[in-house]
Amino acid sequence: MSSETGSHDNVSDHDPNEKLPERRDEAHEAEKDPGHGAEAALAEDPFRDPGLPPHEHRIQDVDERAAKRSERTVALYFVISMLATVGFIASYVAFPIEQIVYIWPLGHISALNFALGMTLGVALLGIGIGAVHWARTLMSDVELADERHPVEAEPELKRKVLADFRQGAQESALGRRKLVRNTMFGALALLPLSSVVLLRDLGPLPEDKLRHTFWEKGLMLINENTGEPLKPEDVPVGSLAFARPEGLEPEDHEFNTEIAKAALMLVRIQPEDIKDKKALDWSHEGVLAYSKICTHVGCPVSLYEQQTHHVLCPCHQSTFDLSDGARVLFGPAGHALPQLRISVNDEGFLQADGDFAEPVGPSFWERGA
């Protein structure tokens, strides 16, 4: 009995809150390293949320001189981007497109393409590096944890998101770091100029080429099928013929470019059936000459209905009345087919009395009403 009592006394005399030596060591380690306890807990339960590690301040957070150095570094990258954009535009003007240079290890390449690629790459790289360096050194890097929310947010959550956004904008120091802000805006404002300059590579400026065709006063109408000049009797009533300007030959280098605007169709209608007075005045003995280019997207108009004097574009079914100034009856075409004023020369061949009075083909932004 005495031994049992002594044993019982030993147990009861022990303080249950007293830490055993092993537990004292663990507590001591946890005090020295706050993450030690989290690691131990994670080892016991691998599915337990370990939480966020303790936040470590950057040197820029505690030393304003270091922050200023980072600000100047970010601004330097943005300035490099701006200078590269200016270099891009200058390269486009300075280097002729035919100039070839040798650059190791690329070999012989276009000086213009190399200069444009390098300057544009540096411009984009400067903005990217500046933004990353800004985010890593000057913006707030405090870790935040938030729970997932339904797609349709509650009003309270919306207010929280807006508040977080305002807080993030404030912590980004965009308003306080004026040097970073101004150089970033300058780089972003100059960079789109590169795209504007690249539009020049779409081709030469049209100038007034859209308003004029190969036709001019005195040029005979040449039959597209026979290659011979046309006379009024070559276009019988109810028929449709196609013509090109005299002097424009299929073997010419610019033939496709010019015929795309100058293609002509001829139709002969009894003069009493022509409703539009201007169309009648510009015809010769009922022979009417209209542009063959549809005013919707430029398809060749070619399907003629003899009884109604309607002509149909096969692409999108725009329908024009040739007896009434080729006005649009149906379809997406925006305006009537332009008419070419014709007459006959001393030899009895049909000839143009000038160019079309208005641009042919689809509408464009500079075209007048």
Automatic annotation (TrEMBL):
Domain Rieske positions: 261-351
Domain of life: Bacteria
TM spans (from-to): 74-94, 114-135
General function of this protein: Iron-sulfur subunit of the cytochrome bc1 complex, an essential component of the respiratory electron transport chain required for ATP synthesis. The bc1 complex catalyzes the oxidation of menaquinol and the reduction of cytochrome c in the respiratory chain. The bc1 complex operates through a Q-cycle mechanism that couples electron transfer to generation of the proton gradient that drives ATP synthesis.
Entries under Pfam families matching the protein: QcrA_N (PF19297), Rieske (PF00355)
Membrane topology: Multi-pass membrane protein
The name this protein goes by in its record: Cytochrome bc1 complex Rieske iron-sulfur subunit
SUPFAM superfamilies: ISP domain
Tagged with keyword Iron: yes
Originating organism: Streptomyces hazeniae
Keywords: 2Fe-2S, Cell membrane, Disulfide bond, Electron transport, Iron, Iron-sulfur, Membrane, Metal-binding, Oxidoreductase, Respiratory chain, Transmembrane, Transmembrane helix, Transport
Basic and acidic residues compositional bias, start-end: 1-36
PROSITE patterns: RIESKE (PS51296)
Residue ranges, annotated region (Disordered): 1-57
Compartment(s) of residence: Cell membrane
